[in-house]
Amino acid sequence: MGVANTELIEYARALRPAYRTGILSNSFVGAREREHQRYGFGDLVDDLIYSHEVGMNKPDPALWELTCRRMGVAPDEMVFVDNVPQLVDSALAFGINAVLMKETGQVIADINAMLSVG
């Protein structure tokens, strides 16, 4: 639970309702409540998937499959963003479009290119 990236939060908010959005987090008990209180994540996205609630962690392929099912998309219809190269590689291997976050502007540009917007 670091500092909120307000630029990325506003970008994610602007994607709705044209796109379904979600947060997939390797998490701990109480994360949902704390993050909603601090950042309002429960109102920001369509679905929140916390690893401790579903009993698996990224990069488990079963978690990628669960995420696709809950978001209602095929892997190649999803864009996943993370700052951990191994998790991005795992998502790519599963067939998910994935972006390695280095900085906010780069992430937004990469997502826009994948969505053919902006």
Write the layout of secondary structure elements.
Layout: H1 6-15, E1 22-25, H2 31-39, H3 41-44, E2 47-50, H4 51-54, H5 61-71, E3 79-82, H6 85-94, E4 97-100, H7 104-115
Parallel strand pairs: 1-2, 3-4
- Main sheet summary: 2 strands, parallel
Decide which structural class fits the backbone: alpha/beta
* Oligomerization state: single chain
**Which architecture does the CATH hierarchy give at level 2?**
3-Layer(aba) Sandwich
Distance between the termini: 29 Å
Q: What is the CA-based Rg, rounded?
A: 14 Å
Q: What is the general shape?
A: globular
Share of β-strand residues? 5-15%
Approximately how much helix is present in the residues? 40-55%
What sequence of helices (H) and strands (E) makes up the elements?
Answer: HEHHEHHEHEH
Number of strands: 4
CATH class: Alpha Beta
**CATH-defined topology:** Rossmann fold
Main β-sheet, spatial strand arrangement: 1-2
Could you state the CATH homologous superfamily? HAD superfamily/HAD-like
Low-confidence runs (pLDDT<50, min 5 residues)?
Answer: none
Domain count, please report it.
1
Number of helices: 7
What does this structure look like?
There is one protein chain. The protein starts with 5 loop residues before the first helix and ends with a helix. The protein is α/β, with parallel strands linked by helices and 118 residues long. It has seven helices and four strands, in the order H-E-H-H-E-H-H-E-H-E-H. The model has no long low-confidence stretch (mean pLDDT 91). The strands form two sheets. The chain has a two-stranded parallel sheet with strand order 1-2. Strands 3-4 form a two-stranded parallel ribbon. The protein has a single domain, classed as 3-Layer(aba) Sandwich (Rossmann fold). Strand 3 (79-82), helix 6 (85-94) and strand 4 form a beta-alpha-beta unit.
